[in-house]
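From the pipeline queue, job 12 of 40. The input is one protein chain; the requested action is below.

Action: predict structure.
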Amino acid sequence: MPLRFLVVEGNVKAPRERHRETFGKTYAESYGSVLQKLEKDSVYDIALPADEGANIPDAAGLEGYDGIFLTGSALNAYHATPEIVRQVELMRTAFKSRTPVFGSCWGLQMGAMASGGDVQANPLGREVGFARRIVKTEAGQSHALLAGRPEAWDAPAIHLDLVTTLPDDITVLARNSVTPVQAAEIRHDGGVFWGVQYHPEFSLVELSVILDRYKPTLLAEGFLQSEEDHGIYVKELRAMGEEPTRFDLAWKHGLDAEILDEDRRLTEIRNFITHYVKPTKSTRGRA
């Protein structure tokens, strides 16, 4: 039987539709297409818990999926608005269902919030474009989530917030100088969650589209000095995404195969499916 996934969209309607207008897909639709690249026969549904009145699966409904994936979000977890509270509650239900869950960026924050941790703005500021020199912790050296990653690597990233208070049963797997929790496993209420603070699912083309929309923030916060600089930066990211052999641009931006090679960029998502979803599918009796 094909693997059945649920992709949980972290955004409210306006930003997800804006992403569809500029990239051609919502964040959840893009995530789903990545999953189908990795597992060609897989199918996926999309949940929209940020929307008032949305149909949100209960624990029994979540048990029918082989894996759950949480996307990023433009929301801030510490605001505790209804659209955020619904997502935290869904993550608590996911833990209870014991269905394997993977989260990118906001997804990791939801996993932490749902299990007793906390999320706040990073006092060091935003990590945007790429998370640089991520390194494994001692626990991360042998954890299947990071299997195949080198001693240090970069990954697409866009976040201001981060996990500040750790849940009781969390294993931090990776960190860097900006973000102390870059990857983690969280155990809570019978369930196990794997997540990263970065975005392995983002291609350079998708990242360039997002950063094009981020122009006011990038200029206001001093990441780029002028609109011309911003235009060049976005154009070059897109060029590398469309033509990964642009080694001149890779050298200029300090990128290597961990990002330029799609197969390597998707390492954590593939590992989650291979080392967690598929073995769990067998033990849960849906093989």
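Job complete. Residues 204-258 form one domain.
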